[in-house]
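Form 12-C: Joint structure prediction
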Amino acid sequence: MPKLLRKAVLPVAGLGTRFLPATKATAKEMLPVVDKPLIQYAVEEARAAGIEQFCLVTGRGKTALVEHFDIAFELEATLRERHKTRELQLLHDAASEPGSIVTVRQQVPLGLGHAIWCARAFIGDDPFAILLPDDLVLADTPCLKQLADAYAETGGNVVAVTEVPREHTNRYGILEIGRDDGRLVEVTGLVEKPDPAVAPSNLSIIGRYVLLPEVITHLARMERGAGNEVQLTDGMAQMIGRTPFHGLRYEGRRFDCGDKVGFLEAQIAFALARPDLAPAIRKFLREYAEVPA
Ligand code: G1P
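Section 2 - Result
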């Protein structure tokens, strides 16, 4: 029986420069898709996969993220006075269980691998999930739940993967693949952001992982990889052959909310998935589509 998966690490120290000026004074993970900040989507997805303990790897200027999961005492009192029960429920949904969220600081931006290594005391000897809140997945079964099930099945590392156009391999961690049953793919190698000409496949990692704690030992060597950063992908690559390692072709659609077009697409897709908003948005899209380019 593999050890139970109860922990998640959320790296949120990035500066969000691609979204300036919106991110000048606020964290990019606080940007809303429809009416909910990206960070809350990630936490809710993790909870739906059985995660109970969270570690936010933050940086300077990111306190709003911690505030978001706290109890907003004054706001609650006012809403209660005004009998705003629906709004009160929304506040409660956003608050976390006492003691379930801890934060550590990534003091210098040395890469995703370094951010995960900063959470080593939280991880300890347990398997853990990683969610990159920039990646939003619209799915019937939450993406991390799909990964958690695959972890329970294989007992090893599992990363969410999807096919990307070959010219985009230099944006992602890319798999070298062994056995492939169409859903689970055996990982025989991993390369961070390879040039399309040398990429071992076009199967890319998206921001959802379930990893064994051994990865910390490899990250601790602080070897620099692509972009002169400590890459999570390189740390993971060193576990191949020692522990089971699979890619999971998840069911669902991924939106890269770190990119303006992806972020806007997510707004539309998530609004269309909401019964209270879908009719108005659909009407608008129909009208708008008639406008010549
Ligand atoms: C990170 C990882 C990369 C992964 C991607 C998914 O890259 O390093 O392997 O494919 O997230 O979104 P970043 O987007 O931080 O450049």
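Section 3 - Comments
The domain at 7-289 is CATH 3.90.550.10 (Spore Coat Polysaccharide Biosynthesis Protein SpsA; Chain A). The chain has one domain: 7-289.
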